[in-house]
Amino acid sequence: MDIASAALRDADGEFPMSVDQGVRSSDFRAIRIKTGAGLGGLVLQTGQPARLADYHNSELITPDYLAAVDVEGIGGIVCVPVLGPDGVNALLYAAVRTTVTPGDIAVVRLEGLAAEAGTALHHLAARAGHAELAALRQRQSIANRLHDSISQTLFSMGALARRSRSETDPLLLSQSLAEIEAVAGVARAELRATLAELCRIPDGRGLDLALAAEARTFTAASGVPVWWSRRGTPRGVAPEVAGLIIDALREGLRNAVKHSRTDQVMATLRWSAQELTLVLQMQWGEHADRTPAEHGASHSPGSGLGMIADRSRAVGGLLELSMDPDPDGLVVQRLTLPAPEYQP
Fold first, then answer.
1. Cα three-residue angle 303-309-313, rounded to 5 degrees
2. What is the largest CA-CA distance in the chain?
């Protein structure tokens, strides 16, 4: 196969080309698949894989994307749907630049990938459902505790206020007011404790949220999407480790636009028993200058990545940068840091 690509469903229900390998033209990358249009649209309608020996002359599909496919020089092509819990979530493509029907082996392999991706989506949906149910039960528990404690406190304050209204002895009145103040203080403490529990961020999630915020800011400014993958169980880490991870993400994303000229970034955060690893992967953009990669260059001392490498070594970590100068090659930035569980 000469080309592999994937179109992922967006919020509008369309399927823009989101990941590709071997694609040469920006026209093909700009395709947005709609139901009923082209080969992908046919697959969306039927929910079944489909393959063509000659895309240009096929009578099975509409010509909506014919110009972009012709620019790419595609002849034979196969498309397989990824079925999630709410329908088709992605379309996987494999194609050749000759007029030949993709073989059974290629189709079976693509169907296997689609099945694995669909299974993963179902597992993610199930986990999200369990997490949502757990969060709902926690909110209900907190609401019940608030009701029991605050209701009792308000009842006590009301009784004391009624008793004080008819009290004429200044000393007794002062005592009643002091009791009301004490009860109100207890209520405030209970409310603060409950609010603190509601706002508590689980161990490790603080770093996740910070990284997600950095990625959203980058995408809003550059238009380049960041696709996240997280592996392992998050935990609390030392501030210097979290700071290094965030700075490495920020610098890597900046270089993705400045040097690699990529149109998307894959970011992976891996938690192991004693280490934390951030991996950024991107393809060269159409207008990227690959000369430094061809000369075997890496990050230089004093550069943004150079300073992050120095900071990493100071805490026992390692920053690695690999650049494949091939037009279809990958640029990979990997930061590994020792990250035992941190208790502030």
1. 150
2. 103
